[in-house]
Write the structure tokens for this entry.
Amino acid sequence: MFKFAAAVALAGALLSGAAVAQPAKPTVVLVHGAFADSSSWNGVVEILRKDGFSVVAAANPLRSVSNDAGYVSDVVGSIAGPVVLVGHSYGGQVISTAANGHDNVRSLVYVAAFAPDAGESVADLAGKFPGGTLSGALAAPVKLSTGGVDLYIDQAKFHDQFASDVPAEQAALMAAAQRPVTEAALTEKSGEPAWKRLPSWFVYGTGDKNIPAAALGFMAERAGSKRTVVVDGASHVVMVSHPEKVAELIEEAAK
């Protein structure tokens, strides 16, 4: 009788444990865009880590879509378990390509990001709607010995153009540390995008001067966004100025 009761108790404990066990949370891979670096995600990373997520802020090379997507694809391929891919700005085109061929990518999050269709480039979409002022804020191109040019935002114009809702002192540091993007990367056409098969979420600000809000809204609707968060007055670096809103949407996409 004692053995039977013990067996019942053990079975009950095991079943109870199974009932409350939770699946492992996905790893969040963050991909920055042009004129930014991995540190632009610091506020978001802090929140996600506090909430129990593993996070990788990938160093996007910003050389070409095919090269950059290949690098991010390698990062995703090194991760065991499910992944949520998050892209900012040009990084949106990168994740749209990098997710292809990976069954562990569960969802995509576009943070003030481009979501091109096949045959479109970042430059195509940037000029599709009025309101963007990036071209007038660029510094003189840096010619590369390997061919082509690197593009930077003029440091004197960086705060107003790129990060108007970030404190001036912080924006000055971001301007000095900005990562350049090749002109070729911005004009490279996209292949078949992963957002056509994966659920996606979008967040952007109405004060974005790099990508007009109308363009961002158009891409979100076209991709069938599960939820689109529009932050009133937020600049192009909404993840820096409003990390809590971005982190909240990423966590929603991770469920």
